[in-house]
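Subgroup meeting minutes
Present: P.N., E.W., G.H.
Scribe: E.W.

1. P.N. recapped why we're keeping a running log of single-chain structure predictions: easier to compare across weeks, and new members can see raw inputs and outputs side by side.
2. G.H. added today's entry (78 aa).
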Amino acid sequence: MVSYVQAKHAAEGCTSWGVNGENGEIVDMAEYGVWEAYSVKAQTYKTAIEVHLYCVLSSLLATWTQIVFSTQCDWLLS
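Output recorded in log:
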């Protein structure tokens, strides 16, 4: 589907084609009156960065927890 939209965009004067979110058809978004605003793109990037940071944070937390518990429980094993 993405390659079809890219092919439509490559044609002369066909830069407003996209996917209809309700039924999945490839349509001319200018006919529907849908224009992607900058705010939509900006929010997408902000959300992606936030998700990435939460993934890194959870990974660090898991690693830190393993280190703390392994050093605190050494006295139990000896």
